[in-house]
User: Which sequence fits this backbone?
DNA sequence: CTGAAAGCGCTAACAC
DNA sequence: GTGTTAGCGCTTTCAG
């Protein structure tokens, strides 16, 4: 920058003004400086500038796994709003690992990100309190903050699961298997609650044999379903409350030749769900909307919004494609 | 940091040493400093440290679209190797937009990333030459660098398309439709070349009516296929050289009721391709491997490897699942 | 509209 | 093993 100033015959501060597109610099000087910048291949050092100005133009996004379609879609939405501010996004995957979350949060705070989008792996977030007090802006996504107060954008999992289950009940199903993720995961637990509530609303009792949680992968879902169906009175419908598990369930039904006999509803849409045979009925969470909301809230905070933290609930939507509309066998 | 030093009763430099886990600090002092850090909720300012040390611990990843499974998988692989170094990844999507690429490269260079992974939208990369000369390390992924010399990790698209086409020919198909992306996109062009080469190798002539390029989305692929099949002598097989297009083609065949009559091979695998009916035969590119290779090469350069830039070709693999093994109609 | 001086928070290079 | 001095590249404050 010194060299640029010298070549352009102006002061350091003037170069700084031009580079930062500040107003109040005369056009000829802007031109002169710009020319010098190009001639010298000068690259403004954003890091150095941050040191004094206290804003990095970076937001952090700590997601579950950027390679799964939910996290990836979220990231894309965040990126789109960040870009409008000429901000940039630092991402990492947590893989449900508690230690990783704490370490990455520490790292991002150390890098002085202007804000943080967090889809937490931990269940207790009080460790964030000092940073929050120090001015860190955080928006939780998909999972609720515990032990601290901050904004969140959540899917209404209870309602989504309730709707899915009610949909199956409405078609006459009475034996509905719930295949779910680890019950310790908050969203999974809420879906279980929604399932139970729908049964209760229909005046039914919960049959513990029809609840199989702890399914994380499509393989686990597939095997779990095969196990359950190897019984004298198998279910007539399946609610698979995680997308990978729904895929496993679909695969298992295919293997059993029951794709068109057993109803199946999944939670969380994914590409190609409509191309399966039958098309997979799912509860869809609008990732684009969730990401945009989270980013908008984060930027409102960055812009100085000091209203009380809010919990934003995004309603999921039941998308009928065929698999969920199969009636119980006569 | 000054406060920490004061509280611990040591010098600034000693705190710096402890925070950076440098050797040659006595255990009791480390403990004292660590305690002071915790008491004060001190957060090491990585940005300030970078200013002096000239390394940011950040790599940039400019990909096509982080929400598609190819880019997302790549990003995940990059992240995994970066994490082993306690580095972090700055990502953005280019969406084939030339201007965006240049702007983001400029931004990331300004942020002094230690290295850059680039899946370019541009076709001329000479604009990078000054930065390269200034020491920027760049590894190209999926597309070749033009106008500069730097490392790249590419999929052997010609061979992949050749194999796919030969596979169809081997089953007796003679009228094979090639549905491809914009021919101006390098990878798409190479796939067209592979298709042509396979026909030539089988002693066949290229029928221009059987080449439909410019298909970008699944909708376009679907319509294009419907158009082609609305003819007196439709093809008996389809090679869809882009994953979204293959999905559109599968959807179109489904609509025509020809899923089991017409052979279909796609390029680039995606989740659930095996669950379609019939399972979709594809040419698979190993994203995990590509990402790991690119990151390893980038870090080798960062570590000072000055050997000549190399072009690494990853062979794609034909994955048979049924749709590509349908024989031509008698 | 432009510039000079001070300092952001840290680490390199050296001394002790 | 630990401390001191200088300065990374920029922006802030205030003066002109």
Assistant:
């Amino acid at each position: 920058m010194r060299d640029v100033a010298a070549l352009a015959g102006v002061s350091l501060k003037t170069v700084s003004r031009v580079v930062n597109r500040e107003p109040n610099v005369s056009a000829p000087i802007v031109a002169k400086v710009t020319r010098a910048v190009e001639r010298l291949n000068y690259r403004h050092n954003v890091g150095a500038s941050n040191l004094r100005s206290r804003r990095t133009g970076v937001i952090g996004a700590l997601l579950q796994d950027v390679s799964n379609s939910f996290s990836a879609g979220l990231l894309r939405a965040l990126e789109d709003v960040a870009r409008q501010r000429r901000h940039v996004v630092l991402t990492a995957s947590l893989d449900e690992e508690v230690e990783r979350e704490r370490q990455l949060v520490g790292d991002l705070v150390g890098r002085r990100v202007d804000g943080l989008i967090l889809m937490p792996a931990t269940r207790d977030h009080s460790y964030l309190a000092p940073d929050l007090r120090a001015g860190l802006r955080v928006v939780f996504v998909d999972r609720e903050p515990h032990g601290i107060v901050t904004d969140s954008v959540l899917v209404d999992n209870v309602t989504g699961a309730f709707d899915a289950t009610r949909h199956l009940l409405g078609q006459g199903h009475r034996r509905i298997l719930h295949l779910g993720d680890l019950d310790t995961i908050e969203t999974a637990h809420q879906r279980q609650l929604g399932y139970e509530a729908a049964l209760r609303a229909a005046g039914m009792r919960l049959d513990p044999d029809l609840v199989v949680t702890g399914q994380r992968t499509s393989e686990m879902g597939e095997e779990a379903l095969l196990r359950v169906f190897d019984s004298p009175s198998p279910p007539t419908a399946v609610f698979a409350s995680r997308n990978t598990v729904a895929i496993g369930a679909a695969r298992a039904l295919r293997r059993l030749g029951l794709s068109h006999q057993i109803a199946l509803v999944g939670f969380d849409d994914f590409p190609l769900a409509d191309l399966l045979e039958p098309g997979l009925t799912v509860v869809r969470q609008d990732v684009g909307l969730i990401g945009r909301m989270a980013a908008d809230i984060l930027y409102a905070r960055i812009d100085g919004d000091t209203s009380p933290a809010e919990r934003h609930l995004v309603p999921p939507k039941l998308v009928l494609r065929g698999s969920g509309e199969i009636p119980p066998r006569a």
